[in-house]
Amino acid sequence: MDLGGSFLLLVTGPSGAGKTSLYEGLLAEDERLGFSVSCTTRAPRRGEVEGRDYYFITREDFERRRDSGDFVEWAEVHGNLYGTLIAEVERVAQSGGIPALDIDVQGGVQVISRFQDDVCSIFVFPPSWEVLEQRLRGRGTDDEEAVARRLANARHETSQAGVYRYWIVNDDLGRAQDDLRAVIRAETLRSRRAPGPPIS
């Protein structure tokens, strides 16, 4: 897959850590960032829009695309399939942008393994387990069993945080967004991203 000299921006963390909220403001202010819309087999939540938040497809269609090699990564999370389309990433990269991935931890580990130094990987932590539970319950979209499953999965997912290059604790959204801006700035200034020395 051709990234056109760009890099992948990967922001992930356990469900409820607030990774999507981190992205929202930055996508609006930084025209270089292009959100890569993922596919999922789960039903849309209230307010979600097809083609903006996800591509909502059937399990059969997802499995067909997976078997055809259409995904950069894919994973089964909470009983549903999620995946990032190669075509989505290339769409952003070929326009000169930075593909921004908002995916789960399983998929993130796959992306890091596949792209290595071409991915800027960030793991988002909640400030505490208590706050994470409050956020999950506050959504009002899951029953007790689903909340318990997400909390159990979150503890496993945080054990994989050491694979990621940067860590951000989302205890204050504004401060966490400032941290994310700093990470993106640092990545764009890496010498390997430049076509050559500015002077010689």
Structure write-up:
The structure is a single chain. With 200 residues, the chain is α/β, with parallel strands linked by helices. The chain has one domain: Rossmann fold, CATH 3.40.50. It contains 7 helices and 9 strands. The strands form 2 sheets. A 5-stranded parallel β-sheet has the order 2-7-1-8-9, with helices on both faces. The protein has a 4-stranded mixed β-sheet with strand order 4-3-6-5. A hairpin with a 2-residue loop joins strand 5 and strand 6 (80-85). Helix 1 (19-29) packs across helix 7 and helix 5 packs antiparallel against helix 6 (144-158). It is globular, with a radius of gyration of 17 Å.
Number of strands: 9
Can you tell me the residue ranges where pLDDT is under 50 for at least 5 consecutive residues? Answer: none
User: Mean of the pLDDT scores?
Assistant: 88
User: Helix share of residues?
Assistant: 40-55%
Radius of gyration: 17 Å
Q: What is the fold named in CATH at topology level?
A: Rossmann fold
Described by the principal axes of the CA atoms, the overall outline is globular
Domain module tally: 1
Biggest sheet, in brief? Answer: 5 strands, parallel
The separation of the N and C termini measures 32 Å
Walk me through the topology.
Layout: E1 8-12, H1 19-29, E2 33-35, E3 38-40, E4 54-56, H2 59-67, E5 71-77, E6 80-85, H3 86-93, E7 98-102, H4 105-115, E8 119-125, H5 129-139, H6 144-158, E9 166-169, H7 173-188
Parallel strand pairs: 1-7, 1-8, 2-7, 3-4, 8-9
Antiparallel strand pairs: 3-6, 5-6
Helix pairs in contact: 1-7, 5-6
Concise structural overview:
With 200 residues, the protein is of the alpha/beta class. It is built from 7 helices and 9 strands.
